[in-house]
Amino acid sequence: MLIKIDTVFKALISVVLLTTTLTSCKKNDGGELPPADSTGRIEKLEEVDLTVTEPSGLSFGPNGNTLLTVSDNTNKVYEMDLQGEVIRELNYTGFDLEGVTYNTDKQIVAVTEERKREIVFLDYTNGDEIERHSIETGGNTENKGLEGLSYNPNNSAWYMVNEDVPGEMIIWNKTFENISVTPLNFASDYSGIFVDTKNSLLYIVSDESQALYKCDYNANVLKEYPLPSTKFEGIAVDSEKQRAYLVNDKSGKLFIFKLLN
Q1: Fold of 5-26+37-83+90-259
Q2: Which secondary structure element, helix H or strand E, spans residue 17, and what is its range?
Q3: What SS3 class is residue 101?
């Protein structure tokens, strides 16, 4: 029986990516949540009222000097300074926007449209739509689709979380589409994701569990940071300064926390 070369190549690439990068965050091998001593502490440094209503996803912009966010209300993409002041509004209106990230390789912005389960590429300079792609997820509940989005330049892959029913982490790229889809089971839902490539870490935030999780590339939860409320739906981490930037959908605020341990 003949096997297409591209099928074999795709399988080989998938194996390489799965063995060199993380495939998910999950509970420890015994199926238990992390022990009590893995609970981290955070210190709130700033709490800023935003002019962006219902902010959802969060990402650093070019060189880490700005922040990108999207609004559940206006379905627009905004670039802000690190203190939450809006610098500009991109020329794009989406549908049920949730996740956002900046691609350092291509200088493009990507967003997820939750109900459509699509990733959309935008020109960073003017915000015009370049292309879009459907993402295969488990389940078909409209409002339990794609939430968080982050980009990993080390393997040219996009990391997405499906909110719930089921909770999943999806690793995807344009060439091979879904490289891996792995169930997540350590929180009630999953609302944001950030890939820390400098330290080979993942940060995943859960709205309903009121927590931020630091995970390693071996799929173990290393720290669980309790958050002060629900509705945190976007995360970006400056690992050098140990600062976590989060947006809260309900309060319309940007929070800046210091990760203490």
Answers
A1: Neuraminidase (2.120.10)
A2: helix 5-20
A3: strand
